[in-house]
Structures are given as structure tokens and as C-alpha cells.
Amino acid sequence: MSENLNNTVNDINEAPEENLNELLAIRREKLAELKASGNDPFTEVKYDVNAYSADIRADFEGYEGKDVSIAGRIMSRRDMGKANFIDVADSKGRIQVYIKIDDVGEEVFAAYKKWDIGDIVGLTGKVFKTRRGEISIHCETIKLLAKSLLPLPEKFHGLTNTDMRYRQRYVDLIVNPEVKDVFYKRSAILKEVRNYLDSKGFLEVDTPILVPLEIGAAARSFATHHNTLDMDMYLRIETELYLKRLIVGGMERVYEVGRIFRNEGMDTKHNPEFTTVELYQAFTDYHGMMDLVEELYTMLAQKICGSTVITYQGKEIDMGNWQRMTMVEAVKKYAGVDYNEWKTDEEARLCAKEHHVEVPKDATCGTVLVEFFDAYVEENLIQPTFIYDYPVENSPLAKKKPGDPKFTERFEYFINATEFGNAFSELNDPIDQKERFEKQVEAKRAAEPNTKAEVDYDYITALEYGLPPTGGLGFGIDRLVMLLTDSASIRDVLLFPTMKPVD
Asked: Which has the closest alpha carbon to 477: 494, 497, 464, 463?
């Protein structure tokens, strides 16, 4: 009965209660029998493995006729009486195994017949090809290494409930092998990013995750309390200020691959905790950072996807061809509005009203420009595009443009109408920085009276010792992985995305 039930149940969370209860009872009875006979599978501590499914498939000629030892999970079984075929999944894929009573012995075969789909086994045997040409292992010994007490989703439909896939990623990885490929690629992307930066002379460092200040930035922090010090602390919303302290200290090229936490909304592009790369290089500027981004992303597309031309959600994107536009140029191109024609803030606000662009009552020309960009430009930036020279109003950490202090040496870059990263020629004037920080905190306190935002005066002190001209860049790993694996949601590229608990 357990075989029939095991092969017909869909997601165990959606199975009829009577069937599920019977399945659970049957599997636990089998475990009790194993323990009573002295064959408790949970006492196994190791199993020597010398081959993997994908390696055997890739080099059949090298493995043919040789003895191999593999371990993995039983995913299917085809019963032919005194001989069986099973599919075993290991960390690299699946392979067919032929089990015959004459080869493993009657006692072992009888015990094996009671095992279930999902059980973890170790086996040895010779590699061969069946008459139908299927690369397989002719089993000589087989051993139960762990008992699965819950049935897997039915093999033809898998775990299809998206919400449950994210909650039970362990099951998702078992029954949907393409999901595992995404996370192998994620690891490869991180490795290539590190290799690239290391080759350019950057040093990987770690900076604090728990920080003593809620800074005045727009992002909202997660708060906690340190009992021993009796002080409130916050999960970091960026790694920037600590990394630039290191530039002050003479570490001229540094980067961090770090977890960031923001107590904000959630959607297909946002998760409360996410991974970023932030890097800082002394004696360069934002143009140097543009060159770095273009070279890095072109290389990643070629190495991960095999081509600089990739497909994302049905759109062809050329990662080897990057455009560069100032924000003023982009707004003029897509909105038909020329920032340079605005003589006063009032004229800018009137222009926004005429174009049905909502702006604050006290909006400046720079603020209005940013709102026009959001309303008209971003949705058009499908191919890789740098947008640079941002208004000073929304760039508190960027250096002002020489000769035009209304703008800063800042850029963001966009692919598929999504922002992927942010970079500056870093502000290194401590007096200017202090004024901007104080205005930022003042504005946040006005908007949120209960905020505990403060100015990071220690960072100002660091600047007073002298920060050399520096280029800085930050970009999200999760969105990059989405792009290079053609994943529609950030939850598809996070092993354990944040989820609301089930009642």
C-alpha cells in the first residue's frame, strides 16, 4: 500500500489528511521495524563515495566496467519482480541503478523492497549501458543510510506551489533539479566577482553588521539591543562608511561582499536582507568605476552564460554594449523636457505639473529632474545604460561636479528597466560632508519624529584626517544573479527568502 500511496500523493501539504496520516504511520512503522532488527539507519555515520552521477555520464568510456561507489536519494523505482531499476539522485544529478536479487542476495533484496521513495542509500557496482543505451550502475551492494519519514511530491508534478517552494527549499531542491542549478550559478558568480576584484588589486575585508548608530539615510534600519552594553544597536543598511574609513587608513583598494538589512517593503526585486558588493578605490573617480562595471559585467555574462548576449524574461540584452547618458540628457530624450530651460525652482515645479509629474511643494530643480527621470526614463532603459551626473539633492555622499555644484559625480546603471548599482566620486570634504549629514538627519527627524537617526561624527573625524580622491561602487548580487539565471523574482535566487510565518 505504501508504494501506491507514495506514487500518487502530490504535495504532502495538500494531500488528503487520511492518506497523509496513513503514509506517516507506515513509514514510522518501517523505521520501528528497522530499529527493532538492529538496522537503525540513523546510526550510520559515513559512507565512502568515489563517483558522482554527472561525472559518470560525462565520461562513460572512462568509467565503463569499473566499480564505483555512490550515495544519494531514491527518486523512482520500477519493479520487475526479482530485478528492479531505481533512479538515485546525488549532488550532481541522477543515474539509473539496476538491482537484481542474485547480485545483492535475498536478504538484502527483501530489505530493499521495503524501502521508500526518498530514502537515502549508498551503493556499489559496475558502470554499464542498458540495451536501450541508458548509462547505469549494475548494483553489487546497497545500504540504507537514512530513512525518509515524509513522502516526496509526486514525480510528474513536483513541488509546484510557489509559496511552499520558498518555505520548504529543501524539498524544492530535491524534486526540482533546475533550482539547484540557479544556486550553483550564484556561487560561480560570486567566485568570478571575487576573482576579478582580486586580480585588480582589491582586498576583501569584513566590516561590522551590528552598528551603534541609525544614520540619517532614507533606508529604515532593523533595531536591536545589546544587553551587556545596555545600548540600542542597528543592523547595517550599507557597508560604505566603514570601507571608506579603511581608504583613509591607507588601504587603497577594498571591497566587501556583505549582507545588508533594510526594514522596508517586499516585492519581486526586494527582500529585507540581501547581498551587496561595495568597493572603493583611491585615486580614481566615477568614470573609473564605470569602466570597471562594464568590464566586470561583460566578463560575467560570457563566463556564466557563454555569451555577452543573454535573454532575460524573453528580452534579448547585449551585456557587451553599454550606453552612457547624463540624467539631464536622458530626461530630455525620453520626456522631452530640458532641465537647462528652468530658471527657477517654481518654473521646474510648474513644468512637472504640466506633465502630471507629482513633486513636493518645496521641490527644487534637482528634485523635479529626479521625479521626471522616475516617471519617464527608467522604464525605457532595457539595454545596459549608465545614467550619470545626479542632482546634489539626492546624492549626500557624492562629490560635487567641478564648475557645476548643482550636480554630483554619481551614476547608477540600469538593465531591463531596473537599477543594478550605484557609484560616486566620493565626497572627501569633511566640512561639506558634515553639513549634508546634518541636513539629512534634520529632514529625517522632521518626517519621522520618533526616529533615532544621528550623524556619524566619527566618520567626519576620519575625513578630517584626509580621504584621497576615491571612486566607490555598490551593486546587488541578488539582482545580478536574477539577470544571469533568467529568474523573475528575487525569491528564486535566495535559498531562504524572508517569509511570513504560517499560522
From this structure: 494
The answer to whether the beta carbons of residues 360 and 341 sit under 8 Å apart is: no
Burial of 359 (0-12, 13-18, 19+ CB in 10 A): buried
Asked if 390 and 427 touch (Cβ cutoff 8 Å), the reply is no
Q: Nine-digit cell at 258?
A: 556583505
Whether the Cβ atoms of residue 365 and residue 346 lie closer than 8 Å to each other: no
Element housing 190 (H / E): helix 177-199
Residue pair 19/6 in contact (Cβ under 8 Å)? The answer is no
Asked if residue 410 lies in contact with residue 424, where contact means CB atoms within 8 angstroms, the answer is yes
Helices (H), 215-364: 240-248, 286-300, 327-335, 345-354
Pairing of strands 323-326, 385-391: parallel
User: Rounded CA gap, 135 and 145, in Å?
Assistant: 24
Cell of 411: 551614476
Confidence of residue 90 (pLDDT cuts 50, 70, 90): very high
What helix, strand, coil percent values describe the chain, rounded to 5? 40, 30, 35
User: Cell numbers of 495, please?
Assistant: 535559498
Give tens-digit pLDDT for 119-129. 999 999 999 99
| pLDDT (mean) for 187-199 | 98
- Separation in Å, CA 185 to CA 229, 313, 332, 494: 42, 17, 39, 12
For 196-213, the pLDDT digits (tens) are 999 999 999 999 999 999
Tell me 302's DSSP state: I
Mean pLDDT of the chain: 93
Among 406, 467, 401, smallest CA distance to 431 is for 467
Based on the number of CB atoms within 10 Å of its own CB, is 444 exposed (0-12), middle (13-18) or buried (19 or more)?
Answer: buried
Question: Mean pLDDT across the stretch 434-441?
Answer: 91
| pLDDT value of residue 162 | 86
Round to whole Å and give the CA distance between 366 and 392.
7
What are the cell numbers at 332?
A: 530630455
CA angle, 177 then 183 then 185, to 5°: 105
Asked if 348 contacts 302 with a C-beta cutoff of 8 angstroms, the reply is no
Q: What is the mean pLDDT of residues 350-374?
A: 96
Give me 366's grid cell. Answer: 534637482
With cell 509526486, the residue in question is: 154
* DSSP state, residue 220: P
Do the Cβ atoms of 224 and 233 come closer than 8 Å? yes
Whole-Å CA distances, 364 to 119, 357, 371: 66, 14, 11
Residues 6+ apart with CB under 8 A from 227: none
Taking the C-alpha atoms of residue 474 and residue 426, their distance in angstroms, rounded to an integer, is: 12
The identity of residue 447, as a single letter, is A
Cα→Cα distances 361→75, 100, 294, 368, Å: 63, 81, 38, 11
Rounded mean pLDDT, 422-434:
95
- Other CB atoms closer than 10 Å to residue 313's CB: what's the count? 11
Poorest-pLDDT segment among 88-92, 329-333, 445-449: 445-449
